What we know:
It is built from nine helices and no strands. The protein folds into two domains: 18-71, Homeodomain-like (Arc Repressor Mutant, subunit A), CATH 1.10.10.60; 86-194, Tetracycline Repressor, domain 2 (Orthogonal Bundle). By secondary structure, it is mainly alpha-helical. Keywords: DNA-binding, Transcription, Transcription regulation. It holds the Pfam family TetR_N.
Amino acid sequence: MTQELGRPGARLGRPRDAGLTDRLLTGALDLVAEVGLDRFNADALVTATGAGKAAVYRRWPNTEVLLAEALRRCHPVPAVPDTGSLRGDLVALLAPWTRAMDRDERALAAVVGQARHSEELRVGLQVAVVEPLDAAVTAVVDRHAARGHRVSDRQGALLRRLVLALWWDRSAADPAPRTAAEVGELVDRVLLPVVPVG
């Protein structure tokens, strides 16, 4: 997927027009979500956005760096309301799973496999998914503890790992929407046993 953009000795990474930079980053997300990573390249981006190739050359050294920056604009993890219970909070966290994947989710899913071989893409996923999801689960666990339930560090860490693993599985293997009942069953059978509710 990596396509080198700059010439040796060329000055890189200095956007000259914030509006054009925004258009290129938005176009990158649109494109990779639509056609996948294998067909994402600078030529396709230029065609899709109407930007000149020189505009891309001035900003990023290759398409992985470009796409990694674009991924940081994705916000797939919802803000989780305080529902009053651990179960309700976890169901709210997984609420996006009851609908088809949106543009951001499709773009992120498209790079999951390649991120194993790309530090840039791995960092993009870390910022867009791993860190927000970790923060969301931590907030849910802290609320549960504040309601008077004891939660060990080990239990909290295991819950975070499970939720992240399920998130990656949906992205990479099984993106079909679930019903609300299926999400509830997943929470009841897989997640709730990790953290005591009594």
